[in-house]
């Protein structure tokens, strides 16, 4: 896009490593009224109220994290919209989609969605969308929730960990799929077969891992894929931890089933062999598995069987992370660290920033129907990240913006540092402090 003589932009950001849809290279990104107005040569003479030259620091689109448990209202002491969106902005994430459980009430009807939106209003440093929930007894609420703007519907096939969000039986799952398919909605599934889950035989990580075998994920994925094929619903498998899921996912897609899947930073960067005794900050469901399994997940990403990498940020207060894997809360806090954690391992394996952007920005935005997000393109929102891909930092849990200081990444040295984050052309780095006009995040 060329600008007319005398046309003055609000902001021009130049980088020799801009990650655009056509690849990585030098560019100048012109911003006006919160949107990207033009893409130009790095040294193009452009007039703007503000000019930023990043030099060799990469310019990425803002990441889109479609798997975040904010927990407000009801469990705001675990996390909340203010703290979660600060952490997101600090980590280069400019859009999050909030999961429907762990808040009270859960987002399973229109009234609960309205309460969630009231809780979020005026607090958000980044943009926020919402998932609805599919639980026993709320079939009639799914279409109204869809019409009210949720991005899709989360369900469990096994117990969720909170009694107010019970799992669907096989019959209820099929009925939900039929209903959601009728308005071409999206069902996102926590896929573990409860028949294969057990109680850990002891307090250690090995006993916990044995109680949630990879076969439980594979069997659940096969069930979802078969029902999705029958009903025609769009289905998405959440937080794949077991490489046993890759073959049935690939086969279903080859057969024309509308099914996609994600994995998470902790499954790509951590491994069971290194989890210390009692270190329940590593506990999540499904669990972190072996190094060999991790290698297979990376291959699944490279092959496109897994399309998204999102955090599954599932925080809790420190007292719930007791040093007993059988009793501790299962969830990992990593919203602020996902980009650097994944880039650390991805770069070691020869992957590129262009792939990172596809997995952590473009594909999650497409999954949730967030048009104008996750891409540096004319007309898109000017959600941008200055990412120093070669810098290193050591994680100090006390410096994170998550509400509670619990993360398995504490003390790890990671590659890549987020220098600046812009939301619609406005700097939203928490270190800058709140602007006089208040947090700029929209409720999508």
UniProtKB/TrEMBL annotation:
Q: Where is the Amidohydrolase-related domain?
A: 59-428
Task: Name the pathway.
Answer: Nitrogen metabolism; (S)-allantoin degradation; allantoate from (S)-allantoin: step 1/1
The alphabetical list of record keywords is: Hydrolase, Metal-binding, Purine metabolism, Zinc
**Could you tell me the EC number(s) of this protein?**
3.5.2.5
Question: What GO MF terms are annotated?
Answer: allantoinase activity; cobalt ion binding; zinc ion binding
- The protein's superkingdom reads Bacteria
Asked if the Swiss-Prot or TrEMBL record annotates the protein with the keyword DNA repair, the reply is: no
Q: Which Pfam families match?
A: Amidohydro_1
Task: Check the record and name the NCBIfam families matching this protein.
Answer: allantoinase
What family does the database annotate? Answer: Belongs to the metallo-dependent hydrolases superfamily. Allantoinase family.
Q: How does it assemble?
A: Homotetramer.
Q: Report the PANTHER family cross-referenced here.
A: ALLANTOINASE (PTHR43668:SF2)
What is this protein called in UniProt? Answer: allantoinase
Q: What's the source species for this entry? A: Streptosporangium subroseum
């Amino acid at each position: 896009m060329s600008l007319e003589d005398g046309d003055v932009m609000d902001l021009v950001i130049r980088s020799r490593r801009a990650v655009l849809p056509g690849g990585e290279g030098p560019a100048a990104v012109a911003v006006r009224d919160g949107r990207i107005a033009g893409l130009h040569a790095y040294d193009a003479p452009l007039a703007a109220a503000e000019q930023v030259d990043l030099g060799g620091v990469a310019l990425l689109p803002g990441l889109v994290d479609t798997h975040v448990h904010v927990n407000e209202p009801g469990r705001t002491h675990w996390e909340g919209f203010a703290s979660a969106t600060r952490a997101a902005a600090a980590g280069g994430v400019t859009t999050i989609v909030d999961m429907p459980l762990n808040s009270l009430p859960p987002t399973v009807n229109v009234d609960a969605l309205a309460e969630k939106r009231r809780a979020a209003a005026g607090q958000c440093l980044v943009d926020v969308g919402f998932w609805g929930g599919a639980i026993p007894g709320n079939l009639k609420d799914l279409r109204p929730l869809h019409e009210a703007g949720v991005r899709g519907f989360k369900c469990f096939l096994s117990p969720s960990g909170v009694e107010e969000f019970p799992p669907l039986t096989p019959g209820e799952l099929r009925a939900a799929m039929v209903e959601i398919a009728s308005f071409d909605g999206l069902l996102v599934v926590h896929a573990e077969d409860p028949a294969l889950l057990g109680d850990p035989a002891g307090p250690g990580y090995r006993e916990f891992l044995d109680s949630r075998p990879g076969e439980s994920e594979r069997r659940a994925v096969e069930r979802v894929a078969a029902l999705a094929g029958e009903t025609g619903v769009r289905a998405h498998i959440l937080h794949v931890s077991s490489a046993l899921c890759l073959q049935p996912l690939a086969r279903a897609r080859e057969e024309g089933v509308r099914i996609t899947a994600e994995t998470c930073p902790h499954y790509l960067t951590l491994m069971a062999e290194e989890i210390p005794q009692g270190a329940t900050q590593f506990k999540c469901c499904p669990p972190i598995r072996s190094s060999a399994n991790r290698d297979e997940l990376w291959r699944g990403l490279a092959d496109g069987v897994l399309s998204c990498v999102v955090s599954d940020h599932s925080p809790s207060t420190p007292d719930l992370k007791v040093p007993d894997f059988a009793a501790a809360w299962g969830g990992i806090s990593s919203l602020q660290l996902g980009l650097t954690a994944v880039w650390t391992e991805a770069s070691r394996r020869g992957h590129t920033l262009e792939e990172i952007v596809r997995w952590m920005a473009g594909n999650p935005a497409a999954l949730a129907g967030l048009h104008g997000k996750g891409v540096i393109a004319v007309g898109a929102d000017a959600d941008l990240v200055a990412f120093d891909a070669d810098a290193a930092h050591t994680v100090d849990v006390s410096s994170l913006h998550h509400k509670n200081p619990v993360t398995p990444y504490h003390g790890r040295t990671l590659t890549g540092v987020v220098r600046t984050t812009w939301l619609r052309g406005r700097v939203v780095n928490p270190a800058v402090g709140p602007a006089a006009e208040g947090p700029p995040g929209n409720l999508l």
